[in-house]
Specification:
The chain is an alpha/beta fold. The chain is built from 8 helices and 15 strands. The protein has a 6-stranded mixed beta sheet, sandwiched between helices. Strand 2 and strand 3 form a beta hairpin. The protein is globular and about 80 Å long. The protein starts with a strand and ends in a 6-residue tail after the last strand.
């Protein structure tokens, strides 16, 4: 039975649970449940603190898990390995300090840096030859400078608004581009490939839609340039021999532009259908 670690709370928890449900697995119905069996799919789920998942998986206690790349690197567990990017939970890590005080990474040498990810930040600074006094915090890192416990911070940044409100400005390079990832233990557990295939199917379904349309047969080559699909469009004859029906997978993000372009060359009856799951 495949043993899977899932975040029990935090920004990754809801999306991870939804993704597993779309992949056909039966998760918990009560947020207080920490262990759920899914005998139909031969898996069991363990709902853990996101920061602990890499430790459990890296030690081999659990087979696979969903966590953030940042948390994986912060745990510094050599046995845990990233298997697949999952396409959600994106975040960026940056340094920030009082305006005008810092210009480059070397300016931090010998100073105090507050962060909720001491393992991640320590490894990064060590690679760049910068020695600092790390101040581990569990939250509200942006307040550390104002309250006098640190000279600078290293934290997750989206728009930078929170840091600016705390009187800080971003400086130096990006520490890490993170997102949710599937991680695995050192051993290859039975069922991992099935899980991976299912999760990939969900990601394809989220990124693509099906586009169906009718088109004069003489325009097929032109239409295929607009929407080539994954491998090739499916083309079927219509009662009128001068027309064909076309079905093609198209990226969801650009489907409206594709529809406009197809209509402009003569396609008609253009329909878009959501994909609930896929195997490519």
């Amino acid at each position: 039975m495949l043993r899977i670690a899932v975040p029990n709370k935090g920004m990754l928890a809801d999306t991870a649970a939804q993704m597993l449900a779309e992949a056909g697995y039966t998760g918990r119905r009560d947020s207080k449940d920490l262990h759920v069996l899914d005998p139909v799919n031969d898996v069991e789920f363990f709902y853990l603190r996101p920061k602990d998942i890499a430790t459990y998986v890296g030690s081999g206690a659990l087979d696979v898990g969903i966590t953030g790349r940042d948390l994986l690197l912060d745990a510094r567990m050599p046995g845990a390995r990233e298997v697949e990017k999952l396409g959600f939970g994106a975040s960026t890590f940056r340094f920030a300090g009082p305006p005008g005080r810092f210009g480059e990474l070397a300016d931090l040498d010998g100073l105090r840096v507050a962060t909720a990810y001491p393992g991640l930040v320590d490894a990064y600074l060590d690679r760049h030859g910068v020695a600092v006094d790390l101040v581990p915090l569990d939250g509200a890192v942006e307040s550390a400078v104002r309250l006098g416990v640190a000279d600078a911070v290293a934290d997750v940044v989206s728009t930078g608004t929170t840091l600016r409100q705390a009187g800080l400005e971003i400086f130096g390079p990006v520490l890490l581009e993170s997102e949710a990832v599937l991680i695995a233990s050192p051993h290859d557990a039975e069922g991992t490939e099935t899980l991976l295939r299912r999760l990939r199917g969900v990601m394809v379904a989220r990124r693509y839609v099906l586009v169906d349309y009718d088109l004069p047969a003489r325009l097929v080559d032109e239409a295929v340039k607009i929407a080539p699909g994954i491998e090739s469009p499916t083309i079927s004859p219509l009662r009128d021999p001068e027309w064909v029906a076309v079905r093609v997978m198209t990226p969801r993000a650009t489907v409206n532009q594709v529809m406009d372009a197809l209509y402009a060359i003569g396609a008609r009856a253009i329909l878009v259908t959501a994909i609930h799951n896929a195997r490519l």
